[in-house]
Amino acid sequence: MSALFNFQSLLCVILLLICTCAYLRSFFPSIMDRNKTGLLGTFWKCARIGERKSPYVATCCVLMAFSILFLT
């Protein structure tokens, strides 16, 4: 199935997007900060969520990994 139709896969893709954007922003902040609006603004917003809510994002990543490895 596609990740759009399976809720668990959709959550996994969103978590990966948030973590990837936050990681890339730590190396290239000027590229991310340039595009705050439009379609590329989504990546900036994901990076912000990853930076500001990092304990919650990390907890969700661990829970998602546990659920993928042991529950499915």
From TrEMBL:
Keyword flag tRNA processing: no
Signal peptide segment: none
Pfam families referenced in this protein's UniProt entry, alphabetically: DUF1242 (PF06842)
Cellular compartment(s): Golgi apparatus membrane
Main location: Golgi
GO CC field: Golgi membrane
Keywords in alphabetical order: Golgi apparatus, Membrane, Signal, Transmembrane, Transmembrane helix
Domain of life assignment: Eukaryota
Membrane topology term: Single-pass type I membrane protein
InterPro entries in the record: KISH_domain (IPR051523), Ksh1 (IPR009653)
Sequence intervals crossing the membrane: 6-24, 54-71
Function: Involved in the early part of the secretory pathway.
Family: Belongs to the KISH family.
The protein's name: Protein kish
Provenance organism: Pararge aegeria aegeria
